[in-house]
Write a structure and sequence with these properties.
alpha+beta; Aminopeptidase; 7-stranded mixed beta sheet; 4 helices; globular
Amino acid sequence: MIRQAYEADIPGVVRIYDKIHALEAAGKGCTGWKKGIYPTEQDASEAVLAGELYVYEAEGKVLAAIRINQEQLPAYALCDWAHQAPADQVMACHTLVVDPDRAGQGIAGAMLRFFENHARQKGCPWLRLDTNEKNLPARALYKKHGYAESGIVPCDFNGLPSIRLVCIEKALAGEGAID
């Protein structure tokens, strides 16, 4: 079940962050994230307080999380987007995470479908997100779900310097977007 996150969900979300950070530290990850810099418990708390964090819960455990809002990173202004959409018609997702122990079970795809449905409900036919250039699994996931890469921009990302950010977009068919 995917639902809005509550304060009580923060430890479960942070456990996922910690697992991803551990993989990164062991050289087995590709997010480019760093423990203590991004993402952190504070990031999860701020998203919960803003009403923007959603979790995938099963078996009484948080197995995935995603932040959804209309905030586009400043680096997005450097991208040559295929669709020049008005900001009030763009929905963005940030920090999509799945418990690494549950990878390959379709949870990330379910989270993306939730993101798309949320955008439809809010009247936003344009979707934008990003990932680190080195995060090939995420890039493949987004492509599989109909998202297109619109460019790679250099930036300092949430305290992480010299990141090459892949800007990714999708137009929701039949929602005022170009099919």
